Amino acid sequence: MAKSRNDTTTLDTKLSHGATRRHFLRDAFRGVCLAGLGGVAAFLLNRTRKTNTVWQIDPHKCVACTNCSKYCVLEKSAVRCVHAFSICGYCRICFGFFGPEPFDITEGAENQLCPTGAIKRTFVEDPYYQYTIDESLCIGCGKCVKGCNTFGNGSLFMQVRHNLCLNCNECTIASACPSGAFKRVPADKPYLLKTVDRS
After folding, report:
1. Integer angstrom CA distances of residue 153 from 89, 91, 129, 144
2. Residue 175 neighbours by CB under 8 Å, 6+ apart
3. Which of 56, 87, 83, 92 is nearest to 173 (CA)?
4. Where are the domains of the chain?
5. Pairwise CA distance, residues 152 & 144, whole Å
6. Which of 69, 92, 113, 132 has its CB 3.0 to 4.6 Å from that of 141, i.e. a possible disulfide?
7. DSSP label at 60?
């Protein structure tokens, strides 16, 4: 018995719908798999970037704006003042240590620029003094750096301490930095040290 034309059309339509549905499900499954692979790849790429690079401050771009002490996600900023002794003049009056108008040239707290007393002044020999940073007291405000850069030879500068830093993907200090001094550097060379300009 021959099939009617209507039966053949219905069968073709059913096959066509079944094939279309099958293709749709197959393509949708492939799309979901590709999206999943893309997400995993992005995660691994981000993780690789995060572990291979770290945030650091370019001391030649830093303007000592005090944002490092205000914008870090940590309660106490991961940024600390660092001293390049090779640049320091070991001055009797250091403008990174003393406020702009000290009452006296002594180590009294009222004469110091640092709000936490993180800079220690030690007599070497007349007229030289050594200035060292107690990083446990430093809050990364940069006041000493600004004073040293304005009136001294710029031996004080800011650096991110990586034993404290969370290496956030989007660093809030970097976003708030007005001079673009925050940048990612290779993790195997995490510090941008200040050196004497020989030119």
Report:
1. 7, 10, 15, 12
2. 71
3. 56
4. 54-186
5. 10
6. 69
7. T
Q: What is the pTM of this model?
A: 0.72
What is the DSSP track for 151-171? Answer: HS---EEEEE-TTT----SS-
What is the rounded distance in angstroms from the CA atom of residue 48 to the CA atom of residue 167? 12
- Per-residue pLDDT tens over the stretch 143-187: 999 999 988 889 999 999 999 999 999 999 999 999 999 999 999
**Residue 176 three-state SS:** helix
The count of other CB atoms within 10 Å of the CB of residue 95 is: 19
- Half-sphere exposure of residue 147, counting CA atoms within 13 Å on the CB side? 19
| 148 neighbors 135 (Cβ within 8 angstroms) | no
At residue 104, the 3 state secondary structure works out as: coil
